[in-house]
Structure formats: structure tokens, C-alpha cells
Design brief:
The chain is an alpha/beta fold and about 350 residues long. Helix content is about 20%, strand content about 25%. It has seven helices and 16 strands. The strands form three sheets. Strands 3-2-1-4-5-7-8 form a seven-stranded mixed beta sheet, sandwiched between helices. Strands 10, 11, 12, 13, 14, 15 and 16 form a seven-stranded mixed beta sheet that branches. A two-stranded parallel ribbon has the order 6-9. Helix 5 runs antiparallel to helix 7. The termini are far apart. About 40% of the residues are buried.
């Protein structure tokens, strides 16, 4: 049998992408998985910390007899020396958040390869699944690139198209991307083993870059259109969730909502105004209304009610402009705690 290609995998300790990559690479007949490089001790990737099911790449790798490295600084000389001794043909990066510099990349005899969850050159950077949903895209891709010293700038080896479904959230897109990346890895391995893969340079004039969403990015801006606010809610699902404040300072974390085609007010109201009716709870945006469906209540997703979203409960016949519960647009302070 032909010699197997030697691979070192780079991934976060709790990565839902790294865990299946580890299993595929450790079992594939064309691959000799030499080591896994993962997060420093006590460091977790925040993408996955609130997932119901957790993974531990170190524990999984040790059970498979694969060496694990957990350096504080991935580009440290001792890491480069260790990888030089291993002599990998490929470095495979699958959800690893430290930047690999030139000396580390050079330890790969053939190439260092990165799996990136976006249609590069668009959405370079971290957490593209958030920004893809936030921007209302209807089509996406995942990409495999040959790494260079830039951040997500290397030539493209392979891309897989992903049509986005109605109601897609950042969590559902992230999960779909993980599944599709596994399929793309299986497609790529024979090409790596034969050295027959090809690359196409990125058109960096088309490049867009997005960093991790900040606290401000989750604060709902009801001066935007209803569709834009709905995209923001879907992008924030499930953790940390997009939020707004009521006039009394109550922080409301909205998890799901829908465009309201049957709402109690004629025309748009004051942006951010909340109305409770027998048909549901509605909030006004720049050009229409959203129906609020679920909110976060002490970490649990719960249907909106007059209990978890304080305000007046009214019959539709009783609705008037004066019956709108206002929000506090000045209460946007990162240190404030949720009261629900």
C-alpha cells in the first residue's frame, strides 16, 4: 500500500468541526494523523460553550492514540521544533483561532490548508455565519484554501455552495457548514494523498472582512426595517441573543420573531413600541411590525407572555397609539443585567 500522507490537525478544544475532523482523519486509510494542536489550557472557543452537547478534542485524540499539543503560543519555537520533528505533509486547520505564521506554515512539506466557513474572498475573518445571516444573504459557501501569511487570503482549493433555507439562524447555518465541511474533507483527502489538487488565487478586490460580533451588534435597532431587525434576531440566535431594553430597564433577549402581516396597528408605530394583544405581542420597526415569539428567560427559550415581557394586555379592539409600551433607547449599557 502507498505510504499514507502525514497530517497535523489544528482545532479548538471544544470545536464541533474539529471533533469529526479528528475522527475522519484518524480512521482514513490514506492518512496518518500525527498530532492534534489545540487550545491552551482553560481556553474554550465561545462558538460552542452554550451547545447542549459538548466535545473535548484532547480526550478524543488521546483515546485514539493521537499526540496532543496545547501550546499557549502556537508559533513558539518549541512548537515549530516539535512539528519539524514530525515532518507532516499537510497542516489542516479546522476552526483554530490563533494565526499561523510563516515559520509554522513552513513545517508542512506540501501545504497548510484551512477550512473556512464562508464564500471567500467574501466574509474573511471570524464568525462569518453571524454576518451572513445578519446581512440577509440567501446563498453561501464554505471554502478550502492553501494558507499563506495573510488572514484567509490564500488561493482557493475547493468551495461548496450552500443555499440558505427560510428562517436560517446563525446556529443552524454554523451546524450546516460543519456537516458540509466533513463532506468536503472526505472529497479532498484523495487529492491530498495524490498531490493532485489545484489552486485558484482569490480576487482580493472582492474581499470583505468581518470580525467577531461585538456587544453593540446584538442590540436591536428598531429604526431599521422589519426584515433587517428580523435578520439581526436570527443572527443572534441562540447565544447570546439579540436584545433591547424596556423603559424600566428590563433587558429583553429576543430569540425568535416573525414579520407581522396581521398586526393590531395601521401603519408603522414608534420604532420599538411594544403592543400586547389577544393575537400576540408585536413590536414596531421603521416600516412595519414584528411579532415577538420567544424570549430568553433565565437561559430557557420561552414563548412571549405578559409575564416575561411586562406591559399591558389588550384586546385588538382596545389598541390605540397610547397603548404602546415604549422601549428605552438610552439603556444600551453592556454592564446592565437581564431582569427576565
Amino acid at each position: 500500500m502507498k505510504n499514507r500522507v502525514k497530517i497535523v490537525l489544528f482545532t479548538e478544544i471544544n470545536s464541533k468541526l474539529g471533533s469529526p475532523f479528528l475522527r475522519v482523519l484518524s480512521a482514513h486509510p490514506l492518512v496518518e494523523l500525527k498530532a492534534v494542536v489545540t487550545s491552551p489550557k482553560d481556553v474554550l472557543c465561545n462558538y460552542f460553550v452554550n451547545d447542549t452537547t459538548q466535545v473535548d478534542v484532547e480526550t478524543e485524540a488521546e483515546a485514539l492514540g493521537v499526540m496532543v499539543l496545547r501550546p499557549d503560543r502556537v508559533n513558539a519555537p518549541e512548537v515549530i521544533d516539535a512539528l519539524t520533528d514530525i515532518g507532516p505533509d499537510y497542516l489542516i486547520v479546522a476552526n483554530f483561532q490563533q494565526l499561523l505564521k510563516s515559520r509554522l506554515l513552513a513545517t508542512a512539506g506540501i501545504a497548510a490548508i484551512n477550512f473556512h466557513p464562508s464564500p471567500l474572498p467574501r466574509y474573511a475573518g471570524l464568525a462569518p455565519f453571524y454576518w451572513i445571516i445578519r446581512n440577509g444573504d440567501r446563498q453561501s459557501s464554505i471554502s478550502v484554501i492553501k494558507m499563506d501569511e495573510g488572514l484567509d487570503t490564500g488561493p482557493i482549493i475547493m468551495q461548496r455552495q450552500i443555499p440558505l433555507r427560510e428562517g436560517e439562524t446563525s446556529l443552524s447555518l454554523r451546524t450546516l457548514q460543519e456537516e458540509q465541511n466533513i463532506l468536503m474533507l472526505l472529497e479532498l483527502i484523495p487529492l491530498l494523498a495524490s498531490g493532485s489538487f489545484t489552486c485558484m488565487p482569490q480576487d482580493l478586490k472582492q474581499r470583505t472582512y468581518f470580525g467577531l460580533p461585538a456587544e453593540d451588534d446584538y442590540f436591536l435597532d428598531f429604526s431599521l426595517s422589519a426584515k433587517s431587525v428580523l435578520n439581526q434576531i436570527r443572527a443572534g440566535y441562540r447565544y447570546p441573543g439579540s436584545y433591547f431594553f424596556l423603559e424600566d430597564g428590563t433587558r429583553v433577549v429576543v430569540l425568535t420573531a416573525a414579520l407581522a402581516t396581521d398586526h393590531p396597528m395601521q401603519g408603522p408605530g414608534i420604532p420599538g413600541g411594544v403592543v400586547h394583544t389577544s393575537r400576540g405581542t408585536f413590536i414596531s420597526t421603521a416600516d412595519g411590525w414584528l411579532q415577538l415569539l420567544t424570549v430568553d428567560v433565565q437561559g430557557v427559550e420561552a414563548p412571549v407572555s405578559a409575564i416575561n415581557l411586562p406591559g399591558m394586555v389588550l384586546d385588538t379592539s382596545e389598541i390605540s397609539a397610547d397603548a404602546v409600551l415604549p422601549v428605552n433607547s438610552d439603556t444600551h449599557r453592556p454592564g446592565i443585567q437581564p431582569l427576565i
